[in-house]
Design brief:
Blueprint lengths: L12 E6 L6 H17 L2 E9 L2 E8 L2 H17 L22 H13 L19 E5 L4 H11 L7 H11 L1 H29 L6 H28 L19 E4 L6 E4 L2 H8 L2 H28 L6 H4 L2 H28 L4 H42 L29 H43 L12 H11 L6 H18 L6 H23 L14 H23 L11 H27 L4 H21 L4 H5 L15 H7 L4 H19 L1
Helix pairs in contact: 1-22, 2-3, 4-16, 5-6, 6-7, 6-15, 6-16, 7-17, 7-18, 7-19, 8-11, 9-11, 9-12, 11-12, 12-13, 12-15, 12-17, 13-16, 15-16, 15-17, 17-18
Membrane topology: Multi-pass membrane protein
GO molecular function: chloride channel activity
GO cellular component, one term: cortical endoplasmic reticulum
């Protein structure tokens, strides 16, 4: 069985407790004592050290191997009952974990469930920052730095990632993160095809080519459908098929009553479905309001930008041209931050029973913000500015920068103001910015900026403490100093959220679906960016973020539906772009509403037809995952049949008795020294309270 990293003193999880955040000392003491006794009650051993800055580091590990073995067995039985595992786990699992491999991710996942699941499901019910655990800041496992170094070294020498590399991620960080990297690898591979098509179209075909638009839409459909198939194969390979149906209650779920389950007969906590539906209906006005606010902001900013850059010729133009950028830089984060807070509160108000439902609801709200912020500028340029700019812009000229049509003013004096002319190259320049410049900036903001920002904040904090005379280095024992310094550093890192990276890739895919006819070289730019992204995301997890808690998943979740929506939207958008801008017959002003509507309806029907054909074609191909699943079920049925007839080949071949091994407590002398300093919950409480008292004296 994989155990915690040898360099981590046998620690499973670290709980950060901020006693200075309490209103008074008694509150901090009571909550800390409750934390330690609760951990002790679920079979955890604890050690406490000073975390500096008014925080305690509570180190947690499972007290005995048999406790962990029991939890693993119960988890696997639950998987079998819900159809995740094809057969019941071997009864030997109750005695030893050597018979069936236990990955580090499964170990951490089960222990995290013990810490966070509601008490009604056998957990401690610890919810950081909420209710009775308001002083608990976070719960996180420690990085295995030896694995991290080897991981980044291996990836730096590979062009593509195979199933073995993805399996290593799954074993260390869980299936949810492994599915993200598998998606990114698959997307990167398909981008190679899109890049070849785009480069050929750029150098051979005319601009806004119908041929390229059709090939690009076909590529997007094939990619999404093939990824759905690949998800199934990976889910079977990683034994998480249908795991999305196995949902634990959220600790923050607030039931309204208790009722008898009509299926099981058990008394369960209940929240009326009709009441949740009523609360969910608030999403409609919220979505409309959020969309309206963001669209108005972008439309006003766009109008200002057009007037300043293409009409205004007065003084300070070189400075005023940055006005729209300043407006968006200030207002967009402010508005989206406010809307995100509202979305979070609205999703909390909807009161979902499980995490997957909560995450799906929140993801769809966030997708609306990102869709508008990412694509509205290009929509305005393509479908408003270029076709109708000559008609609309003169009505926006409230400052009188433009000359009248006859070139003279009201007094008959020759006008010297600027005359507006549509810039046909504006759309292509915008597309290049979003697919090249913005991608590079975003990559730097993700990887480089956080590193220097954290280093600067650390130095500034130390300088301020020394200046105020409050700086006092912690006197750790020499055997623990290096380890505790690393833990304090990891405790200050941000929490990794794989949803943010999935959102980024989904929005990038949208540019290809919606606007590729504008600049066919966009997939070439994304191909280069994503090769770097694969490695920078790995480095971000290892260096810039806390080690993620491993969660299971059988797909990329709600983002798969968003990818499908973007492919459909892309078929419509591409048809409109080709109709408006390709050929002499469709010059600006030369289109009709009937022709535009016909192109949209035709392309949409072609899209649905192509998607159906692609699904049928893929269904004819053998799926390794489904074949493996059928094989497993066949072997299980054959085994049960043989056992019923008195033949048990597996038992005869494995009569040797399995010797239990206390793998959870295999420790080096250094680890034993660390864990033996405080005996039981009482010792941990005394150690924590002594640190709190010393801190209060210094203050």
């Amino acid at each position: 069985m994989d155990n915690a990293s040898p360099s981590n003193m046998g620690v499973d999880y670290v709980v950060t407790f901020s006693f200075t955040a309490a209103k008074d000392k008694d509150e901090a003491v009571k909550q800390f004592e409750k934390l330690i006794t609760t951990l002790d009650g679920i079979g955890m051993r604890t050690e406490v050290r000073d975390g500096s800055d008014g925080k305690l580091l509570v180190f947690v590990r499972v007290r005995s191997a048999q406790k962990l073995i029991g939890e693993v067995y119960r988890s696997r039985v639950k998987d079998w009952l819900h159809g995740v595992r094809p057969a019941a786990p071997d009864t030997e699992t109750q005695r030893s974990l050597d018979k069936e491999h236990l990955t580090e991710a499964e170990r951490f996942r089960i222990i995290h469930a013990m810490l966070t699941l509601p008490t009604s499901e056998g957990g401690a019910g610890i919810t950081p920052g909420k209710g009775q655990w308001s002083l608990v800041e976070g719960i996180f496992p420690l990085h295995d730095h030896e694995f991290n170094k080897e991981w980044m070294k291996t990836w730096s020498t590979k062009w593509t990632l195979g199933l073995d590399e993805l399996g290593d991620i799954r074993d260390r960080f869980g299936e949810k993160i492994a599915f993200y990297f598998a998606f990114l690898q698959s997307y990167f591979s398909f981008l190679g095809i899109a890049a070849c098509i785009g480069a050929g179209a750029y150098f051979i075909l005319p601009q806004y080519s119908l041929t390229f638009a059709v090939l690009n839409c076909l590529w997007s459909v094939v990619f999404v459908e093939s990824w759905k198939r690949q998800e199934v194969d990976l889910a079977v390979r990683w034994n998480v098929r249908n795991v999305s149906q196995l949902q634990s209650k959220r600790a923050r779920f607030q039931p309204e009553s208790e009722q008898k389950d009509p299926v099981t007969g058990e008394i369960v906590k209940f929240f009326p479905a009709w009441k949740r539906l009523v609360r969910q209906s608030l999403q409609i006005p919220f979505a409309l309001g959020a969309s309206g606010i963001l669209c108005i902001l972008y439309a006003v900013t766009f109008a200002i930008e057009v007037m300043i850059s293409e009409v205004y010729t007065g003084p300070f133009k070189s400075v005023l041209v940055f006005t729209p950028t300043v407006i968006l830089t200030v207002m967009v984060p402010l508005i989206t931050g406010t809307l995100s807070n509202i979305a979070t509160k609205l999703t909390d108000f909807e009161n979902y029973e499980n995490e997957s439902s909560y995450e799906a609801a929140m993801t769809q709200k966030v997708f609306i913000f990102n869709f508008i912020c990412s694509y509205v500028p290009l929509f305005l340029t393509a479908f408003v500015y270029v076709p109708f700019g000559s008609t609309i812009v003169p009505h926006l000229d409230i400052m009188g920068f433009m000359a009248p049509a006859d070139g003279v003013d009201a007094d008959g004096v020759a006008a010297q103001q600027a005359v507006f002319e549509i810039n046909p190259d504006r759309l292509r320049k915008q597309m290049i910015y979003f697919t090249v410049t913005a991608q590079a900036v975003n990559l730097a903001m993700e990887t480089i900026v956080p590193y220097f920002k954290r280093a600067a904040l650390t130095k500034a904090k130390e300088f301020q403490q020394k200046r105020s005379g409050k700086y006092s280095p912690i006197n750790d024992s020499p055997q623990e100093a290096k380890f505790l310094s690393r833990v304090r550093h990891e405790a200050e890192l941000s929490v990794y959220n794989v949803t943010d990276d999935l959102r980024e890739m989904c929005m990038q895919f949208g540019y290809l679906c919606l606007f590729s006819p504008i600049w066919p070289l966009a997939p070439v730019s994304f191909l280069v960016n994503n090769w770097i992204e694969l490695r920078s995301d790995a480095a971000k997890i290892c260096i810039e973020m806390r080690r993620p808690v491993p969660h299971r998943a059988d797909s990329i979740g709600p983002w798969l539906d968003n990818l499908g929506f973007l492919t459909w939207m892309g078929s419509v958008s591409s048809a409109v772009l080709v109709y408006l801008f390709s050929g002499e017959a469709n010059e600006v002003g030369g289109f009709t509403a009937a022709g535009l509507l016909a192109s949209v309806v035709f392309s949409e029907h072609v899209y649905f037809g192509v998607r159906l054909l692609v699904r049928i074609a893929l269904s004819k191909l053998d799926s390794p995952g489904l074949v493996k699943e059928k094989q497993e079920r066949f072997l299980i049925r054959r085994r049960y049949l043989q056992e019923s007839m008195g033949v048990d080949e597996e038992t005869e071949a494995n009569e040797k008795e399995v010797v239990p091994r206390d793998t959870a407590n295999v420790a080096t002398g250094e680890e034993r020294s660390f864990w033996d300093q405080q005996e039981g919950a009482k010792g941990a409480i005394e150690a924590g309270l002594s640190i709190i008292r010393e801190e209060k004296k210094e203050q």
